[in-house]
Amino acid sequence: MRVLLALLFAFALMGQSDPVLVPEVSQPEVQVRQGFTGTELLLFGAIIDPRGPGTGEGYDIVVVLKGPAEPVKLREKERFLGVWVNAESTDLRSVPSFFAVASSRPIDLIVDEKTAAIYEFGTEYIQLSPSGVIDPEEQARFAAGLVDLKTRQDLYKEDFEGVRIREGVLYQARISLPSNVTTGTYIAETFAVNDGRVIASAQAEVEVRKVGFERLVTEGSQDWSLAYGLLAVALSVGMGWAAGRLFALI
């Protein structure tokens, strides 16, 4: 029903000259429960060209999915007298907790580097917000380290042949969310590209939230932080005392 209404809305706009993107997401809400092992999102939709069916054969589609932004402090490690110690560090105000890009073809065959940087068509183009003044070379080094770390955690990913287009109108892409995703609102941005130029874009949202016991624990730690901390200390002391008594009886 949502897709039908969106298509009707798109056709109502066909009086304009620019194409219209109609995006959809298979799971507008992802519930994180105990034992959550991740899920796969299907991002799909259509591009409606006012010139009529079959005129959109030259379009490429790029999908960018970003998780909630968060501040991050990055530290470099260096070896000193045989021991790894903290060296240089930098603070970043706005780092996507999750970032994935999928496209119908390799990005360098779709747009130039400047356009790719503007729309963040790849992990190397993620726009970070460092706190204070930082040397460009140093920023590039920290950014590369951040991307490498997030990639190894399965939180940053690229699939430059991950979008399938049918009949020049319908598209779909699959992006997997790992079990360690951050909760919050995820933004799926879809871009239609023709002749190296972004000619249409649209957004869809995915809400990732904890439910059940995990939600109660998270909300308790945030809303009653003092009581939560005291309870955690009491539980730790109680379990330590119980374990000591148990071993004393053995």
Summarize model confidence as the mean pLDDT: 80
CATH topology of the largest domain: Immunoglobulin-like
The overall strand count is 12
Helix content bin = 25-40%
Task: Output the CATH homologous superfamily of the largest domain.
Answer: Macroglobulin (MG2) domain
Question: At the first level of CATH, what is the class of the largest domain?
Answer: Mainly Beta
Name of the CATH architecture of the largest domain = Sandwich
Strand content: 35-45%
The SS-based structural class is alpha+beta
Question: What radius of gyration results from the CA coordinates?
Answer: 23 Å
Poorly predicted residue ranges: none
What does this structure look like?
With 250 residues, the protein is an alpha+beta fold. It folds into two domains: 2-209, Immunoglobulin-like; 212-250. It has five helices and twelve strands. It has helices at residues 2-12, 113-119, 136-152, 213-223, 225-249, and strands spanning 20-25, 29-32, 39-48, 60-66, 69-80, 83-96, 99-103, 156-159, 163-166, 170-177, 184-194, 197-210. The strands form three sheets. Strands 2-12-11-4-7-8 form a six-stranded mixed beta sheet. A four-stranded antiparallel beta sheet has the order 1-3-10-9, with helices on one face. The protein has a two-stranded antiparallel ribbon with strand order 5-6. A hairpin with a 2-residue loop joins strand 5 (69-80) and strand 6 (83-96). Helix 4 (213-223) crosses helix 5 (225-249). The longest helix has 25 residues, at 225-249. The model has no long low-confidence stretch (mean pLDDT 80).
